[in-house]
Design brief:
There is one protein chain. The chain is mostly beta strands and 297 residues long. The protein has a single domain, classed as Jelly Rolls (Sandwich). Helix content is 10%, strand content 33%. It has helices at residues 16-28, 69-76, 85-88, 94-97, and strands at residues 56-59, 82-83, 89-92, 103-108, 123-126, 137-146, 155-164, 178-186, 191-196, 218-225, 234-240, 243-251, 263-268, 283-294. Strands 1, 3, 4, 6, 10, 11, 12 and 14 form an 8-stranded antiparallel beta sheet that branches. The longest helix is centred in the first third of the chain and has 13 residues, at 16-28. The protein is globular and about 45 Å long. The two termini are 15 Å apart.
């Protein structure tokens, strides 16, 4: 599988030029905090431009006109696979998002964590746009806004891309039935990738490579390049507010060419499982401006 041209000459983790670039990126992006520590502790940065600038936009799902968040999701995201959307999702109008399009406010009631426990907080749904049929490379972008003073506790899930059965929650990944690549927030707003791919179910990738601020919109971009079956050459990249923050290039999403990228896995809740993950009070996070991009034929 061919990959995009490398725009910088060396691995940023291992060169003085790369370390200077990492520092410059952190300084240029308010609210984005690079990992602390020496050169080896720093994450590898994407060495290509943000994926939304390199691929064509193929889908722009947004909440429908229905007043109910649940119905707005069913209308605008063309999904019939969902949980928590009736109880915990509110549709936001343009005046509430401050953007040129509506959004979603997801609620996390006090004491909620994993959706398998009561009270159930957060919500989830899946999209499968026809424009991504057979996709082996895809870019997802969206905007997220944590409420001012948001208590991150130990962490929680954020949307990402998926294929097949979208394994999660302790599932074993076999490389044939599916994969998922969500993001997470962690303590103090640290960000990370949270994969369910072969042999890396639920690992923490790049924790602290960036941090989420509160009280303002942040743009998240995630790019996946699926591996060639039989090779550990799958790639996941993340940009925050247009700045490169994380690249992982040794992933096994699949062992068969029939498994490809299906779409958006909208999944958000506090947890983990257990009391230490629970939100101590009612909280919310806003989402908007979902876009899917793919290479032109």
């Amino acid at each position: 599988m061919s990959q995009h041209p490398i725009l910088l000459p060396s691995n940023p983790r291992r060169s003085a030029v790369g370390l200077a670039l990492a520092g410059a990126m952190a300084a240029l992006a308010p609210g984005v905090v690079m990992a602390d520590g020496d050169a080896e502790a720093r994450p590898t940065l994407p060495r290509v431009a943000a994926c939304s600038t390199r691929y064509a936009e193929v889908d722009a799902p947004r909440p429908g006109a229905a007043a109910s968040g649940h119905e707005a999701i069913r209308e605008g995201f063309d999904t019939h696979r969902h949980w928590g959307t009736e109880e915990n999702v509110q549709r936001l109008g343009i005046g509430q998002t401050g953007l040129d399009e509506p959004g979603l406010r997801v609620h996390y009631p006090a004491g909620s964590s994993s959706p398998g426990e009561e009270p159930r907080g957060g919500a989830g749904f899946y999209t499968e746009p026809a424009a991504l049929a057979g996709a082996e490379r895809t870019c997802l972008s969206y905007r997220v806004r944590f409420a001012e003073g948001f208590d991150f506790v130990k962490g929680g899930k954020l949307p990402g891309l998926y294929g097949g059965d979208a394994p999660s929650g302790g599932d074993e990944v076999d490389g044939e039935s599916g994969f998922s690549m969500r993001l997470m927030w962690r303590e103090h707003g640290q960000g990370e990738l949270y994969p369910y791919v072969v042999d890396r179910e639920g690992e923490s990738l790049g924790r602290g490579a960036w941090s989420f601020p509160t009280g303002r919109w942040v743009t998240v971009e995630q790019e996946l390049l699926l591996n060639d079956p039989g090779e550990a050459n799958g790639v996941a990249r993340v940009w925050i507010d247009g700045q490169p923050v994380l690249e992982q290039d040794d992933l096994v999403f699949r062992t068969t060419p029939e498994l490809t990228i299906d779409g958006l896995m909208f999944s958000t809740f506090f947890g983990g499982t257990g009391e230490e993950w629970q939100t101590p009070r009612d909280q919310h996070v806003d989402f908007a401006a979902f876009r899917l991009h793919a290479p032109t034929p």
